[in-house]
Specification:
The chain is mainly β and 271 residues long. It contains 1 helix and 26 strands.
Length: 271
């Protein structure tokens, strides 16, 4: 992963205060500045109420899911002159105006998935017009959760065919996570008919793929809803639903041929 360091002069650089942005292509940039954050822990659920006609109370409706949200970053730019101020301002906005990037603030092991920048408000500091200013930046999170900065991977290998073999997985998130599941046949073997059932939720998926033999691999991606055998689209071999892991301990049952299974997910929390 490439790392680009953006370091301001001594007037605005704080060695222990910085934000880190990881672009959609994996380029990491670190910007040194003191920053304030508002609304970072605010959540709103999709649930509403309607009055009961001719009765006390109300009805609740909605799916109860977390809505998208916005966070506001506040910072102070102090330039040596107007040119220096404008340079710092432009670098800051260019960094945060990217699309679909990850933002790391107070914790190096947590990040927000930013859809884009929605609003910028700038105000000159009295007595230092053109050189010093306060800047408020609003960022949109269409995905409202806080994420780990790396995937969790659990590998399982069955040396022979299984019927309802138990697979246990512990999800340390505070909410369910979509799963990526990879099937890799052993040498000389095929995994042409496999099934996984989540015993707690009842979710299940089945893969019926006559072409899934060694050394090919199938990747079922619950984040984006795709099924690929190597680089080919094989969604037509999939039935059921894309599986999730609930918060805490999960139990699955596997039925199918011998092979390797990798279960991959990114932990996420409300804060």
């Amino acid at each position: 992963m490439a790392v680009k360091r953006v370091l301001y002069d001594h007037k605005t650089a704080y060695p222990d205060d910085y934000i880190t942005v990881v672009s959609a292509t994996g380029v990491m940039q670190r910007l040194y500045l003191r920053i304030g954050v508002d609304n970072v822990n605010d959540l709103k659920m999709r649930i509403k109420e309607a009055d009961k006609a001719f009765s006390h109370g109300s009805y609740a409706y909605g799916d109860g899911k977390v809505e998208s949200r916005k966070i506001k970053l506040s910072c102070h730019i102090r330039g040596r002159d107007q040119r220096d101020h404008d340079r710092q301002y432009n670098e800051l906005i260019s960094l945060l105006a990217q699309r679909a990037y990850s933002l790391r603030l107070a914790r190096a092991d947590r990040e927000y998935h930013i859809a884009g920048l929605t609003d910028v408000k700038q105000k000159w500091i009295k007595g230092f017009k053109w050189n010093w200013s306060d800047v408020d930046i609003t960022l949109l999170l269409t995905d409202p959760f806080t994420y780990a900065t790396a995937d969790t991977v659990q590998n399982i290998e069955f040396s022979e065919a299984q019927t309802d073999a138990a697979i246990s997985l512990y999800n340390d998130s505070s909410i369910d996570v979509p799963l990526i599941i990879e099937f890799s046949p052993l040498e000389g073997q095929a995994m042409d008919n496999v099934k996984i059932v989540h015993t707690d939720s009842g979710e299940q998926m089945q893969l019926t793929d006559a072409l899934l033999s060694y050394p090919h691999k199938v990747r079922i991606d619950g984040n984006v809803g795709t099924v690929r055998r190597d680089n080919d689209n094989s969604i037509n071999t999939f039935s059921g639903v894309f599986l999730h892991a609930l918060a805490g301990r999960n139990e699955f049952k596997f039925t199918g041929s011998a092979g390797r299974i990798s279960i991959i997910y990114r932990s996420r929390w409300f804060i």
